[in-house]
Amino acid sequence: MAEDEKSSEPVEDKNELHIMKDLVDELYNYRDCYFETHSVEDAGRKQRDVAQEMDKTLKKLEEKEERFKHKAEFLLQKGRCLNVAPDFSAIAEECLSRAVKLEPGLVEGWNTLGEQYWKKGDLMGAKNCFTGAMQQSKNKVSLRNLSMVLRQLPAADSDAHGKQVLESVDMARQAVQLDLTDGTSWYILGNAYVSLFFTCGQNPQLSQQALSAYAQSEKVDRAASCYPELHFNRATLFQYEEMFGSALGGYSRAAALDPGWEEPPERERQLLEYLGKVTELMQNKGKVKARRLRTMLSNLNTSALGPCSSPQFRSPTGRVGSLEPRTLSSLTHGHNAGVAALGKVVFSLASEGRMAFTFGMVDSEETCIVVMVYNTADSWGVLIGDSVVIPEPQVKRHSITHKDKSFDFKSIRVDSPLLTIVNGKRQNIQSQIAASVSYKPQSE
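Below the sequence we write its predicted structure tokens.
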């Protein structure tokens, strides 16, 4: 009889530990699927509500602590429970460290301990934990966490950083391949592509891959559409791609989902202010007086074309041959091959949070257009009265409505100042610097 009782104890313990795991799983489900049971208006309460649920779960675990405090599984669940909070917990770190010492094969223990190191700001410690978990078993959580850490670890130089970002994309891809239905893995792959886009030459294909990964994240996982970081990071990319309406919508949605996060409403405000200024300055031609404008335009002639008038001129697309000057009104939407836009600068804009050096130019017909030049060094710019030529201009019409505001204007996108001719001269290599755009990686 005594033997029977003895053999039944481990089964009973297992059941108890299984119940504890279910309790902690429910806590994570409550946090991750909060907006399935609450409206967006409750977003400001989410952190407090999750903290209350964590305290309730912790209390239930602590009732069993005396009996299970030396068991790895119990220590894991207590560490996981405390890890649901956004901030570092010394108690969680201690529980998880003890859990993996008692049972080194505990993959979830290594992953959760890595997240605690991350919250503490110890990126190398976090990376070692995720790598340790991978040595036990290849798993999606370690892979996607490694993807995030690799993008944040300091690098010796830009080449080393580029390699880290490429490796981070590979890790995120592997995580997705292990489970195509995991929205978090797709979302982190999207972030990895955004990083790669800005690190490695802004290839439009990478931007599309990022947007596709974000879309897939929302498609396979309803909870993903409530990640404020997804909306914010995607909006950052939309803004760079001049999809301003979508960018404003994304910042607004991120702000609604996380009212305590200051950056999304600030970005939304800055972008609205920028679009308002651009529209106003374009409509009044930079407030340049009529007489001064006529004087400026009187010395606008084809000599400003500079190298563009040469039969040997090589266009950004690789076409060789001189370019024909065209009026702004005759330019078509999209890419204008074989022609050049020519005008005088009437305003320039250095707004908060801008991604492009923005200026307005007026042509011989007194038509005004906005020009957005990307990847400019801080020292680069144009002055009112400068003659500017844009070879084979890329023209876009913007028609944006957001909340109670509307904006309508045409612009030319220039991906580098090296593609402009200012006062008849090409721009030097120092005028270009790769754009770096901040998005939110820490709580991917």
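The radius of gyration is 28 Å.
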